[in-house]
Write a structure and sequence with these properties.
With about 220 residues, the protein is of the alpha/beta class. Helices cover about 50% and strands about 15% of the residues. Strands 2-1-3-4-5-6 form a six-stranded parallel β-sheet.
Length: about 220
Protein backbone atom coordinates (compact mmCIF):
# COMPACT_ATOMS: atom_id res chain seq x y z
CA UNK A 1 0.00 0.00 0.00
CA UNK A 2 1.32 3.44 -0.97
CA UNK A 3 1.90 5.60 2.08
CA UNK A 4 0.69 9.20 2.18
CA UNK A 5 3.60 11.29 3.44
CA UNK A 6 2.29 14.01 5.77
CA UNK A 7 3.96 17.12 7.18
CA UNK A 8 2.32 18.49 10.35
CA UNK A 9 2.64 22.22 11.07
CA UNK A 10 1.24 23.50 14.38
CA UNK A 11 2.69 25.73 17.08
CA UNK A 12 1.09 23.85 19.99
CA UNK A 13 3.59 21.10 20.74
CA UNK A 14 1.25 18.80 22.67
CA UNK A 15 -1.45 19.03 20.01
CA UNK A 16 1.11 18.58 17.22
CA UNK A 17 2.57 15.51 18.91
CA UNK A 18 -0.91 14.03 19.29
CA UNK A 19 -1.56 14.57 15.57
CA UNK A 20 1.75 12.95 14.65
CA UNK A 21 1.05 9.92 16.83
CA UNK A 22 -2.53 9.48 15.63
CA UNK A 23 -1.72 9.86 11.93
CA UNK A 24 1.11 7.38 12.37
CA UNK A 25 -1.41 4.72 13.36
CA UNK A 26 -2.95 4.73 9.87
CA UNK A 27 -1.60 2.02 7.58
CA UNK A 28 -1.64 4.30 4.54
CA UNK A 29 -0.07 7.36 6.20
CA UNK A 30 3.26 8.37 7.71
CA UNK A 31 4.48 11.67 9.14
CA UNK A 32 7.74 12.68 7.46
CA UNK A 33 8.22 15.98 9.29
CA UNK A 34 6.77 18.39 11.81
CA UNK A 35 7.19 22.13 12.32
CA UNK A 36 6.08 24.73 14.85
CA UNK A 37 5.31 27.53 12.40
CA UNK A 38 5.48 28.53 8.75
CA UNK A 39 9.15 29.49 8.83
CA UNK A 40 10.14 26.12 10.24
CA UNK A 41 7.96 24.43 7.64
CA UNK A 42 9.70 26.23 4.77
CA UNK A 43 13.09 25.20 6.13
CA UNK A 44 11.88 21.63 6.58
CA UNK A 45 10.71 21.46 2.96
CA UNK A 46 14.33 21.82 1.88
CA UNK A 47 15.07 18.37 3.33
CA UNK A 48 11.79 16.42 3.20
CA UNK A 49 9.27 15.80 0.43
CA UNK A 50 5.76 15.32 1.87
CA UNK A 51 2.74 14.53 -0.26
CA UNK A 52 0.47 16.78 1.79
CA UNK A 53 0.71 19.29 4.64
CA UNK A 54 -1.60 19.57 7.63
CA UNK A 55 -1.27 23.24 8.58
CA UNK A 56 -2.57 25.27 11.51
CA UNK A 57 -4.16 28.52 10.35
CA UNK A 58 -2.99 30.72 13.24
CA UNK A 59 0.69 30.50 14.27
CA UNK A 60 3.36 32.95 15.48
CA UNK A 61 5.99 34.32 13.06
CA UNK A 62 4.27 32.85 9.99
CA UNK A 63 0.71 31.54 9.91
CA UNK A 64 -0.97 29.17 7.49
CA UNK A 65 -2.08 31.71 4.87
CA UNK A 66 1.39 33.24 4.55
CA UNK A 67 2.98 29.78 4.43
CA UNK A 68 0.74 28.84 1.49
CA UNK A 69 1.65 32.08 -0.31
CA UNK A 70 5.36 31.49 0.30
CA UNK A 71 5.14 27.93 -1.03
CA UNK A 72 3.32 29.17 -4.12
CA UNK A 73 5.92 31.86 -4.77
CA UNK A 74 8.68 29.23 -4.49
CA UNK A 75 6.93 26.84 -6.84
CA UNK A 76 6.12 24.29 -4.14
CA UNK A 77 2.86 22.70 -5.25
CA UNK A 78 2.05 20.98 -1.98
CA UNK A 79 -1.63 20.19 -1.21
CA UNK A 80 -2.71 21.63 2.13
CA UNK A 81 -5.35 20.69 4.68
CA UNK A 82 -5.92 23.68 6.95
CA UNK A 83 -6.54 23.19 10.67
CA UNK A 84 -8.75 25.99 11.89
CA UNK A 85 -10.69 27.37 14.83
CA UNK A 86 -14.01 29.04 14.08
CA UNK A 87 -12.71 32.51 14.94
CA UNK A 88 -10.08 32.37 12.17
CA UNK A 89 -12.45 33.75 9.52
CA UNK A 90 -10.02 36.18 7.85
CA UNK A 91 -7.22 33.61 7.59
CA UNK A 92 -9.63 30.96 6.32
CA UNK A 93 -10.77 33.29 3.54
CA UNK A 94 -7.14 34.06 2.65
CA UNK A 95 -6.39 30.35 2.44
CA UNK A 96 -9.44 29.77 0.24
CA UNK A 97 -8.30 32.44 -2.20
CA UNK A 98 -4.84 30.84 -2.23
CA UNK A 99 -6.38 27.58 -3.41
CA UNK A 100 -6.41 25.45 -0.26
CA UNK A 101 -8.96 22.66 -0.72
CA UNK A 102 -9.15 21.06 2.71
CA UNK A 103 -10.48 22.56 5.95
CA UNK A 104 -10.90 20.72 9.23
CA UNK A 105 -11.82 22.08 12.65
CA UNK A 106 -9.44 21.43 15.53
CA UNK A 107 -12.44 20.14 17.45
CA UNK A 108 -13.35 17.58 14.77
CA UNK A 109 -12.95 13.86 15.28
CA UNK A 110 -10.02 11.77 14.10
CA UNK A 111 -12.13 10.05 11.42
CA UNK A 112 -12.88 13.45 9.88
CA UNK A 113 -9.19 14.38 9.96
CA UNK A 114 -7.97 11.32 8.08
CA UNK A 115 -10.89 11.59 5.66
CA UNK A 116 -9.82 15.17 4.87
CA UNK A 117 -6.19 14.11 4.33
CA UNK A 118 -7.14 11.24 2.03
CA UNK A 119 -9.64 13.33 0.08
CA UNK A 120 -7.25 16.19 -0.65
CA UNK A 121 -4.35 13.80 -1.35
CA UNK A 122 -6.44 12.09 -4.03
CA UNK A 123 -7.38 15.42 -5.66
CA UNK A 124 -10.72 16.01 -3.97
CA UNK A 125 -11.97 18.66 -1.58
CA UNK A 126 -12.93 18.44 2.08
CA UNK A 127 -14.70 21.22 3.94
CA UNK A 128 -15.93 20.77 7.49
CA UNK A 129 -19.62 21.81 7.38
CA UNK A 130 -19.05 24.24 10.25
CA UNK A 131 -16.32 25.99 8.27
CA UNK A 132 -18.47 26.35 5.16
CA UNK A 133 -20.27 29.50 6.35
CA UNK A 134 -16.92 31.14 7.10
CA UNK A 135 -15.64 30.40 3.63
CA UNK A 136 -18.74 31.86 2.04
CA UNK A 137 -19.09 34.95 4.21
CA UNK A 138 -16.78 36.85 1.86
CA UNK A 139 -18.68 35.68 -1.21
CA UNK A 140 -22.23 36.48 -0.10
CA UNK A 141 -23.91 37.22 -3.42
CA UNK A 142 -26.50 34.51 -2.89
CA UNK A 143 -29.86 35.85 -1.75
CA UNK A 144 -31.70 32.55 -1.58
CA UNK A 145 -30.08 29.11 -1.54
CA UNK A 146 -33.02 27.48 -3.25
CA UNK A 147 -32.89 29.96 -6.12
CA UNK A 148 -29.14 29.40 -6.46
CA UNK A 149 -29.43 25.64 -6.83
CA UNK A 150 -32.43 25.95 -9.14
CA UNK A 151 -29.92 27.29 -11.65
CA UNK A 152 -28.21 23.88 -11.80
CA UNK A 153 -29.33 20.96 -13.94
CA UNK A 154 -29.99 17.57 -12.37
CA UNK A 155 -26.62 16.32 -13.60
CA UNK A 156 -24.82 19.39 -12.26
CA UNK A 157 -26.43 18.83 -8.86
CA UNK A 158 -25.18 15.25 -8.90
CA UNK A 159 -21.67 16.37 -9.79
CA UNK A 160 -21.71 19.00 -7.05
CA UNK A 161 -22.95 16.42 -4.54
CA UNK A 162 -20.06 14.07 -5.34
CA UNK A 163 -17.60 16.96 -5.20
CA UNK A 164 -18.88 17.71 -1.70
CA UNK A 165 -18.19 14.09 -0.73
CA UNK A 166 -14.51 14.54 -1.58
CA UNK A 167 -14.44 12.85 -5.01
CA UNK A 168 -12.20 14.27 -7.73
CA UNK A 169 -13.18 14.70 -11.37
CA UNK A 170 -11.95 11.29 -12.48
CA UNK A 171 -13.81 9.53 -9.65
CA UNK A 172 -17.01 11.37 -10.56
CA UNK A 173 -16.60 10.49 -14.24
CA UNK A 174 -16.31 6.79 -13.39
CA UNK A 175 -19.24 6.87 -10.98
CA UNK A 176 -21.58 8.68 -13.40
CA UNK A 177 -20.27 6.92 -16.54
CA UNK A 178 -19.15 10.21 -18.09
CA UNK A 179 -15.93 11.32 -19.76
CA UNK A 180 -13.41 13.38 -17.81
CA UNK A 181 -14.01 16.27 -20.23
CA UNK A 182 -17.77 16.19 -19.62
CA UNK A 183 -17.26 16.32 -15.85
CA UNK A 184 -14.84 19.24 -16.22
CA UNK A 185 -17.46 21.07 -18.29
CA UNK A 186 -20.12 20.41 -15.64
CA UNK A 187 -17.83 21.75 -12.91
CA UNK A 188 -17.11 24.86 -14.96
CA UNK A 189 -20.85 25.46 -15.42
CA UNK A 190 -21.47 24.90 -11.70
CA UNK A 191 -18.90 27.53 -10.71
CA UNK A 192 -20.34 30.01 -13.20
CA UNK A 193 -23.95 29.48 -12.16
CA UNK A 194 -23.16 29.65 -8.44
CA UNK A 195 -20.97 32.73 -8.98
CA UNK A 196 -18.00 31.28 -7.10
CA UNK A 197 -14.39 31.19 -8.21
CA UNK A 198 -13.30 27.67 -7.26
CA UNK A 199 -14.49 24.22 -6.28
CA UNK A 200 -13.87 24.77 -2.58
CA UNK A 201 -16.38 27.61 -2.47
CA UNK A 202 -18.90 25.50 -4.40
CA UNK A 203 -18.42 22.61 -1.97
CA UNK A 204 -18.79 25.02 0.95
CA UNK A 205 -22.08 26.26 -0.45
CA UNK A 206 -23.26 22.68 -0.87
CA UNK A 207 -22.50 21.91 2.78
CA UNK A 208 -23.93 25.18 4.06
CA UNK A 209 -27.21 24.63 2.23
CA UNK A 210 -27.60 21.00 3.25
CA UNK A 211 -27.30 19.73 -0.32
CA UNK A 212 -24.19 17.72 0.57
CA UNK A 213 -26.14 15.78 3.20
CA UNK A 214 -28.80 14.58 0.73
CA UNK A 215 -28.92 11.47 -1.38
CA UNK A 216 -27.91 11.95 -5.06
CA UNK A 217 -31.18 10.34 -6.11
CA UNK A 218 -33.02 13.39 -4.75
CA UNK A 219 -31.50 15.57 -7.48
CA UNK A 220 -33.34 13.81 -10.28
CA UNK A 221 -36.41 15.97 -10.59
Amino acid sequence: MTSIKVMVVDDHEIFRTALVNIIGLEEDMEVVGEAGDGLEALALLETVAPDIALVDVTMPRMGGAELVRQMESRGIGLPVVALTAMEDERSVLELSRAGVRGYILKTSGFDDLVKAIRSVFHGGDYVDPKVASKLLSGFSKHRDKGDVFDRLSDRELEVLFWLSQGLNGQDIAERLFLSDKTVKNHISHILSKLEVSDRTQAVSLAWRSGLAAKSPEEFRR
